[in-house]
């Protein structure tokens, strides 16, 4: 068997593992950014929703994205089990796993909007519906040969497909769920509900950062010309610039180098470069990261002012910056690197590519938001509310949904009777 | 004459609005209120325990010591007595009575416990003097904080001689140990940032004080800290920043504009905060509610405070003291 074939597959399975490990990053990031009483829940739900997504992706997700179909959806390859594609490119199973890991990331991002107040059963149901009706549709449009792919939409590793889609579902969720108890005062002013462990959050960010090399550099789908190195270089530069940009911005505006904002800046740099990591020059990666970092700070303030409670800043990091990342292609993509679509504004491509990018953002963003909103509204009606009761929210979801605290020594159940759900 | 603390409280409530526009009238009124409260406390303790066993002086510190109270203020005071340590119990009881009385009248208890009810601030002259010099020479962070609090003191009731004599000892100690100046400057060197890189005011952006600027820490402290340092150097006993300025001008005429700025600051503080309903709020300004002119004025005063603080440091440097 040809060495290149084996190396390609080896590289992509390594990247798959890296992307799966990003879930560990999310566990630490989300648990650290929320309160102690919900920590076990946040960690546990991440693992079991990855389980749900894996099964759904195997059953229908992959087929809806990459199956034979039309410009809107794929319609074959369900219950994936193809062991025959062993000639060139990637083995089917390797490709499948790599794609599955991406779908799971989009799901986890979406669940950011559920944090600290949604019922466990809402996670289960939405995990299934999102993985059937939302993520595969958009992934098909851009990556599966759908109508946006035909337009030359540039989204190398998934600023739109993964991050914007997840963030739009998170937005719908957070709007329907309403803010956490104690987040806003009667006069409209907001309170800070600080996360319980900044060290966890920072470690989470670093784990995501490392995993992102699988996400972006793995999206080369092979080792040809060692181009993955170039993609990794842009990724690293943008992440660094994002952290610096966010910290300088929050420092300049508020006078304090806020740690959560700085951490979100690093993530913003990563999200921003995700779409363009293979299409732009390193200096542009720095600019894209810096701007992403600065944007994330203003976006966090914007949502807070609009009374949209986003506990782990999914809307800003993945949504606002996901949009910026996608559009940045239309500005910075170079003629040599733009293997899909056209060069950007600064390289004589005019507004054409920017227009395609805008079309992609608007159509995908709208689709993800509207369908998520409808699904969640229906679930809200059918399930008698997506949100836990006030009492359960106050005691913490660790206890109300799972029966025990993630930090049992540090927290005391309110009393034995209310310690059990429906008790 | 007033018979109960509640009467004084009522007097405060009836009168304070009429004096709240004028810094000097307001502080004279505070002095009278505190004076009457202490007198009531003395009478009460005298009825309980008999007459004081020794002559004593009741002195004010903090903003009251500096004659710089705002509408609301917390308590900072002490008692010096000219008698043996055995008499301390009596004066501590008096200190407690004063503390509780002032609390009723509207002066919140001091969180740092700088009150005559605390044995640290209620001592015979000799032991107090030893302690002050020890604080100065230990030069640990907390010891120097205590020393700084002490230095802004003035006697409200009783003979001022002993307090003045302690301050003289302090001056001669500093003459012999000029290296203490650099430690003292380090002790107050942190200034809460008030203006950002874009020239904007920097209010708190998190927590329950979000959107507000702490006038005391951000604007006022640089002035009083700079002037106190120079007052120590020039052996000025006066606690009032304004009076310190006046005496310092003889040596450093270039400080004149800063004195004007400081008076503007006192005035602005009153105009912004006279309707505050509690001590907790009195130092906080909601930045969004300021007019454009007020913001400009505040920024100017913050900048001048920083300049004054730097200037004080450069004076110490020029004279080879730090």
**CATH fold title of the largest domain in chain B:** Beta Polymerase, domain 2
| Contiguous uncertain segments of 5+ residues of chain A | 417-423
Taking the alpha carbons of the first and last residues of chain B, their distance comes to 52 Å
- Fraction of residues in β-strands of chain A: under 5%
Quick one: how many beta strands of chain B?
A: 6
Which structural class do you get from the secondary structure elements of chain B? alpha+beta
The helix count of chain A comes to 14
* Uncertain residue segments of chain B: none
Largest sheet of chain A: none
Architecture (CATH level 2) name of the largest domain in chain B = 2-Layer Sandwich
Helix content of chain A: 55-70%
Mean pLDDT of chain B: 92
Radius of gyration of chain A: 21 Å
- Give the overall shape of chain B, derived from the CA principal axes: globular
Indicate the CATH architecture of chain A.
Answer: Orthogonal Bundle
CATH H-tier superfamily of chain A: Ammonium transporter AmtB like domains
**Rg calc of chain B:** 20 Å
Indicate the mean pLDDT of chain A.
93
What is the top-level CATH class of the largest domain in chain B?
A: Alpha Beta
Short description:
The complex is a heterodimer of chains A (423) and B (322). Helices cover 65% and strands 0% of the residues of chain A.
Explain what the structure shows:
The complex is a heterodimer of chains A (423) and B (322). Chain A has a single domain (3-387), classed as Ammonium transporter AmtB like domains (Ammonium transporter fold, Orthogonal Bundle), CATH 1.10.3430. Helices cover 65% and strands 0% of the residues of chain A. Chain A has helices at residues 3-33, 39-66, 92-111, 120-143, 147-151, 159-177, 198-217, 227-254, 259-274, 282-305, 314-332, 352-382, 390-395, 397-402. Chain B is built from 13 helices and 6 strands. Chain B is an alpha+beta fold and 322 residues long. Chain B folds into 2 domains: 5-176, Beta Polymerase, domain 2 (2-Layer Sandwich), CATH 3.30.460.10; 184-318. A 4-stranded mixed sheet of chain B has the order 3-2-1-4. Chain B has a two-stranded antiparallel ribbon with strand order 5-6. In chain B, 37% of the residues are buried. The chains are: A mainly alpha (423), B alpha+beta (322). Chain A binds chain B through residues 189-192, 251-256, 258, and chain B through 193, 196-198, 200, 202, 205-208, 210-211.
